[in-house]
Amino acid sequence: MALPIALQLYTVRDILEKDFVGTLKAVKEMGYDGVEFAGLYGRTPTEIKTILADLGLVAVSAHVPYAELTADAENTLKAYKEIGCNYVAVPYMTEEYRPGAAKFEEAIANIRKIAEVAKSLGITLLYHNHDFEFVKVNGEYGLDVMYTEIPADLLETEIDTCWVKVAGEDPAAYVLKYTGRAPVVHLKDFAGERSNNMYKLIGLNEEKKEEAENKFEFRPVGHGKQDFPAIIAASEQAGAKWLVVEQDEPSMGKTRLECAEMGRAYLKTIGY
To answer: Domain range spanning residue 34?
Structure first.
């Protein structure tokens, strides 16, 4: 049986702000089985749970900022538990907490504490990578260091296959590396090469210089350079429960919703 497909709602964030229910309805009509949150748009957990039930969408997981989780893990996680999320992911780390930086070990310690709270509430904590975790720390990628130092019964993976590829590794192989620890896998496509504009495209202006040619660009799933049949086969073999489509910024002259629909349509052509 094919794995269910969810949409990371960051993909359609601008539209959600204007029409929360209508956007979720459109997502369901595209053929998505569930959603992954990145913010609640002023709605209460009870409201969101009711809306999802009415539409027939599953609350798979949520991306919740590291700072928010460290400030009040219990109450923050309880809100997502109320919505129905079985997973919550640490989505992004600012520079001082990344591998090789001053507070990397502090971040690992804090993520472990958050994971312990999550486990006590019946939630599995995930870590969602970018490419900057692929920096060697004592000869090992920082991402792997984190998964070594925090046991699998506390922290599982949300492998973002786009950023693995950008970092120069094989996404399918990396998912397989974490077999039994990879319940949610991010399907994300791109064109171009590693560029200074990459983080500008996820809302961060960390780099100022931009290359003129072959710049990095997010693409609808199936419209870039990723080998999704291989990635999905690896995800199934690794024991994944959900595949999540994400596109940080629209491209190809399409709107955010059109990009989400193109990705879902592509997946249908390969049996998903």
So the answer is: 5-269
